[in-house]
Amino acid sequence: MDRVSALTMVQTIARTLDEEMARDERVVVLGEDVGKRGGVFLATEKLFDKYGPDRVIDSPLSEAAIIGAAVGMAAHGLRPVAEIQFADYVYPGFDQLVSQVAKLRYRSGGQFTAPLVVRMPAGGGVKGGHHHSQSPEAHFVHTAGLKVVFPSTPADARGLLKSAIRDDDPVVFMEPKRLYRAVKEELPDDPDALVPIGKAAVRRVGDDVVLVSYGGSMAETTRAAEALVEQGLSPHVIDLRSLAPWDEDTVLAAVARVGRVVLVSEAPKSASVMSEVAATIAEELLDQLLAPPLRVSGFDTPYPYAQDREYLPGPARIMRAVQRVLDY
Amino acid sequence: MILESQLFQPFTDEPIAVTSESGEWIAPFELDLGPDKLRRMYQDMLLGRAVDERMSRLQRQGKVSFVAPSGGHEGAQVGIAHALRAGHDWLFPYYRDVTLPLAIGVPVVEFVAQAMGTAADPSRARQMPYHASSKELNVFSAASPIASHIPPAAGCAISMKLRGTDQVTVCTFGDGSTSEGDWHAGVNFAGAQGAPIVFACQNNRYAISVGFEKQTGSDSIYTKAHAYGMPGYFVDGMDPLAAYYVMREAVQRARDGFGPALVELLVYRYGGHSSADDDSRYRPRAEVEAWRKRDPLARLRRFLTRRGLWDDAAEKEAEAVVRAQVDDAIAQAQAAGDVAVEAMFEDVLAEVPERLVKQRSELLG
């Protein structure tokens, strides 16, 4: 297969939007600064020059307007991709997500639908304080009617964004901003290389402990796994990629086989996505567990500024949890 | 921006009326509606009122869980409906719209079935009463959170402009809506984009119990249009033909590429906010009675009678037709039966996800 040059995640997102806009003229982009500026992170770079102001819409500074307008556009036949500049700023548009985006198909008995994507950079590690670092995915996962994905690699960002844009359901597309430029990846040239929503990726096959993570925390989880390998252990690493629906089959099969699992996410611990994963594991596999499922997570505080790195579940905390399940 | 065919100036101090209370034509231009259209508008109002009153009766009988009385709003709603190209333009309604969807062509049985929550409801009994919608007629699904439909309506209109479809979006709401952040968000975006949309406020001066003077420091809604770069029209909403003519001009203006408009239609709701409300706690009876004397049905009937287009016999016949229509719709809605329990798990997403399949089994065994 042909290869394009190696790209970072944020470059990949811009490239992918370009490919999808070229493929389907119903695809439009809207948000704050997505036009001439190309997005504050450059995730929509060059789209304005290529597609013009009708398809790359600089919106007013209003998340409710961005998400709400996307609903009307989608119901009318477009495929809007809305950008929320930071996940932390989604809350003025939260009612639109919950009351309009998520409910439209259901409340109209399937007469009207909102096939749209809401992209938003999320997560910490960039010294952004609590209003530029949060991981609000649990809100969306808790809302019936939304699909939620949170890739950790450029290739998955590309494949999942394509799937999200082509999906007939609304998709909240979360982007780990601290990994935007962390690595470059060579990507397939195939414009139809999709990553299915709802399928996890097994990053490493192992026998001693299952590590499950997603999004930004995949970086620390991967480092922890590498350290465990150096210690002579064999971790099994799963990247959820999709949070709603999440891949129960892949997770449960691995945990049933290994018997030990550590769930890593930087979102606050209480009522988190990983709480749901842990509960499902307990419901389905209690007899096969060799240790309780442990969560290593962000804390139930607002995201701090000075303790940016300490808040994140780093390799040391992950490894302590692994030790606990091994010693149990 | 001046339109050649412009009949009305925006931002008038007094509400625009084209007929007097006694039914005389008082506009400085000639009526251009034929007898059939004029009678149709009146019959639509009769139907809207009859459906609304019957739903209230069914509510008291326990056959409908809730109503949001629409009496007093019929004139504004029939004017809006007839200004649209039904099935071509889009309507983003709110819960007090009864005459409006019916006059656009939503079958009475669908409205009634929605209120009764039976299987004849195209929205599959998913919402409380007074939230009827129709994909076929581009009547968007109303949502209860006030003003949450304003940004989607703006987006729909932006899409119409982008796709060059020659369509117009009309979005209705009450005076309380204008206080929500989403109202500003949607109207502002539509203004910035010059989108083909008409925002039509049915100002009945009460948001449940809160009077207009507590809703805003402004003495009107239409003047707010200034701030969004669009014309604001102030209309006597108890004058059905004024509602029609102003809406027709605003819709045509939007269709011709001149952008959005805000139309404030002064109306009154004769009933409480809903069947769960007791409006005697906050409204003097004398006020209600004074507004009832300005009834939009009576006004249009007087207009028709003066022109020899209506008489007592016609009224009697029309009432019988409407009664039969409503009886028939209720019978059909009831005959359709209940929606299956398992339908609860459908339409969450395009396909029922595995997790919901399991939850469905948990319920059904």
- Report the biggest beta sheet of chain B as strand number plus sense, adding barrel if it closes: 5 strands, parallel
Counting structural domains of chain B, the number is: 1
Largest interface (CB within 8 Å) is between: A-B, 47 and 50 residues
The CATH superfamily name of the largest domain in chain A is Thiamin diphosphate (ThDP)-binding fold, Pyr/PP domains
Total DSSP helices of chain A: 12
- Number of helix segments of chain B? 12
- Classify the helix fraction of chain B into a percent range: 40-55%
* Percentage of residues in helical conformation of chain A: 25-40%
**Radius of gyration of CA atoms of chain B, rounded to a whole number:** 21 Å
Could you name the CATH homologous superfamily of chain B? Thiamin diphosphate (ThDP)-binding fold, Pyr/PP domains
Describe, in plain words, how this protein is organized in 3D.
The complex is a heterodimer of chains A (328) and B (365). With 328 residues, chain A is an alpha/beta fold. Chain A folds into 2 domains: 9-179, Rossmann fold; 201-327, Rossmann fold (3-Layer(aba) Sandwich), CATH 3.40.50. Chain A contains 12 helices and 12 strands. Chain A has helices spanning 9-23, 47-51, 63-76, 94-101, 104-107, 137-141, 154-166, 217-230, 248-258, 273-285, 308-311, 315-327, and strands at residues 27-31, 56-58, 79-83, 117-122, 147-149, 171-176, 201-204, 209-213, 235-239, 242-244, 261-268, 294-298. By secondary structure, chain B is of the alpha/beta class. Chain B has a single domain, classed as Thiamin diphosphate (ThDP)-binding fold, Pyr/PP domains (Rossmann fold), CATH 3.40.50.970. Chain B has 12 helices and 7 strands. Chain B has helices at 35-60, 74-83, 99-104, 108-116, 150-163, 181-193, 212-215, 240-255, 285-292, 296-306, 312-335, 354-364; strands spanning 90-92, 169-174, 197-203, 206-207, 210-211, 232-236, 261-266. The longest helix of chain B has 26 residues, at 35-60. The radius of gyration of chain B is 21 Å and the shape is globular. The interface between A and B is large, with 47 and 50 residues.
